[in-house]
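cron nightly-structures :: item 1 of 1
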Amino acid sequence: MEWSIIDFGKYRGKSLPQIIFKDADWFFHAYENGYFNEVVTQEASELCRRARSIKIPARNGQKMLVEYHIHRDGKSGKGKFGMMQLLPDGSALGRMNVASSIDFYVPRSLAIYDKSGYKNFVSMLKAILFGDPSRRMNRRACEAFFNDDANFDLN
């Protein structure tokens, strides 16, 4: 897919795949609140679909699952994203918050505004997918990742 470049706001000059790796909270907020024109909204819908179904790479031939760890705020009782870890398939009995794909929306589903949760999420995502939590994701890398159907469970 050829991704449009955003022409407004603080992410002017960036493509949607760049934005989701840089500030997924802003991307989902903008998508949910109709910030994008019709063409970009179609791209955002596709990006959303892909970002919510990222395939987990196998480890040593073993299918893996992801477990999301949620921290509860002692004052409000609300959950915030803490971390995610991989588990071998079949070892998740009795565990909560386990999924067969990685969902970029998880931090937002817990807290509408969670910049630190997303920072942790993206770092862990890059460690799981690329083996490096500090991997730099330039425009080409972000777009290549989201253009590769093999990275997603699109059923």
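cron nightly-structures :: done
Strands lie at 54-55, 64-72, 79-88, 98-99, 101-102.
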